[in-house]
Write a structure and sequence with these properties.
Largest sheet: 6 strands, antiparallel
Bound molecules: flavin-adenine dinucleotide, FE2/S2 (inorganic) cluster
Number of helices: 9
CATH superfamily of the largest domain: Nucleotide-binding domain of ferredoxin-NADP reductase (FNR) module
CATH architecture of the largest domain: 3-Layer(aba) Sandwich
Number of domains: 3
CATH class of the largest domain: Alpha Beta
Helix content: 10-25%
Strand order of the largest sheet: 4-3-6-1-2-5
Shape: globular
Strand content: 25-35%
Structural class: alpha/beta
Length: 355
């Protein structure tokens, strides 16, 4: 069950704002079917940089319904390997390797009634939301969108010109509330109370993309104001890798919240019909441990958003940092996201095939 990569040609590269660039791609004719995508999905690229294969995901900013080229936007991360490599070295005419589009961030509303979409973007978090904005405005004459868009300064706004054009075209149903943290401070609950009335919150759909603390604050505000969980959708870019987390009440799935006593022994995994065994490490996710040892375990986003890394827990105990995309049925069936799962027992056995 290893993942495949396909070549995409960079047809255009455009500077968007300070330190962020859009990459437009053309898809080879024979792979067009595979690259049909839903709004706000993401592409996962593989690059070989200084002899090391590195994989990173980037959200799609284009809309599949507008006959526009596939597009992602990359923001330079200080000290980040792939974002700097893409911005400094990938140019028009180059070919990059990508997995097929994945992700479940955008959930179209169940009812056909005209809806109100309230989108929260912080910085580069605007990318998947821009795909949603264009899709919603283009596919209905009645749906409304409110975008609450946080940036440090006006200069750091990504898609400034295009957002203005969409707003001019749909003045009566696309509203943008910019928040500039440098001059007015970060978005917080008192500001949200001023921006959103209880009445607006009741029947709207909420899409959040930005740093973890920002999304936690907004989600908390929404649930405190009686917004239901299924009205809220979040996308987590998770830029900083986590090392050696400890289980706590919020992170534990499947098992108790303590490590089994004694030295860790082994991690056994069935990958593509092959059984592999490696020493167990409590400091790293199950996926990371297998990749570190050179095994071709399947993965894509590494942030709990896709399911590519899902495996069945056959023996042992693990805890999962984030529930991610798992539903009740997955949890009942002991189907875990290995990119989010850490060992609790001394021995763990997982199977990538038995799903
Ligand atoms: C579903 C999804 C969609 C995404 N969409 C986008 C998008 O549209 N646009 C976008 O720009 N990004 C997006 N991202 C984030 C993107 O995938 C990368 O994580 C980001 O570009 C940083 O990668 P990098 O290789 O440049 O940084 P990395 O080399 O991975 O480093 C990231 C940060 O961690 C620090 N770091 C590295 N190693 C360590 C360590 N051992 N200990 C502590 N700190 C360390 C680095 O200094 C840097 O600050 C998305 C991520 C996901 C999961
Ligand atoms: S790799 Fe996407 S959920 Fe684990």
């Amino acid at each position: 069950m290893s993942v495949d990569y396909y070549p995409l040609k960079v047809s255009r590269k455009v500077r968007e704002a300070e330190d962020s660039f859009s990459f437009y791609f053309s898809v080879p004719k024979e792979h067009e079917g595979l690259f049909q995508y839903r709004p706000a999905q993401f592409l996962t690229f593989q690059f070989e940089i200084e002899g090391q294969k590195l994989v990173r995901s980037y959200s799609v900013a284009s809309s599949p319904f507008l006959n526009e080229p596939l597009r992602t936007t990359v923001k330079r991360v200080s000290g980040g390997v792939v974002s700097n490599y893409m911005i400094d070295h990938i140019k028009e005419g180059d070919t990059v390797l990508s997995q097929i589009p994945l992700g479940e961030f955008y959930k179209p509303p169940k009812s056909l009634k005209p809806g109100h979409y309230i989108l929260f973007a912080a910085g580069i978090g605007i990318t998947p939301l821009f795909s949603i904005i264009k899709t919603v405005l283009d596919s209905s004459d009645l749906d409304k969108i409110t975008l609450i868009y946080s940036n440090r300064t006006p200069e750091s706004i990504i898609y400034k010109k295009e957002l203005k054009e969409w707003q001019d075209k749909h003045k009566d149903r696309f509203f943008i509330h910019p928040v500039f943290s440098k001059t007015e401070g970060r978005l917080d609950k008192p500001k949200l109370t001023q921006l959103l009335t209880r009445e607006t919150l009741k029947d709207s759909l909420f899409y959040l993309c930005g740093p973890k603390d920002y999304m936690n604050m907004v989600s908390e505000f929404l649930t405190e104001n009686q917004v239901q969980k299924d009205q809220i959708s979040t996308e987590d870019f998770k830029v900083v890798p986590i090392r050696g987390p400890k289980p706590d009440e919020n992170s534990v799935f499947f098992t108790a919240s303590v490590f089994e006593e004694g030295e860790p022994e082994e991690l056994k995994a069935l990958i593509d019909g092959e059984e592999v065994t490696i020493p167990l490490n409590r400091e790293k996710s199950l996926l990371e441990q297998l990749l570190d040892k050179g095994y071709d375990a399947p993965f894509s986003c590494t942030s709990g958003t896709c399911m590519t890394c899902m495996a069945k827990l056959k023996e042992g105990k693990t805890f999962q940092l984030e529930e991610g995309i798992l539903d009740e049925e997955n949890i009942q069936n002991l189907e875990i996201l290995t990119c989010q799962s850490y060992p609790l027992s001394r021995k763990v056995i997982i199977d990538y095939e038995d799903l």
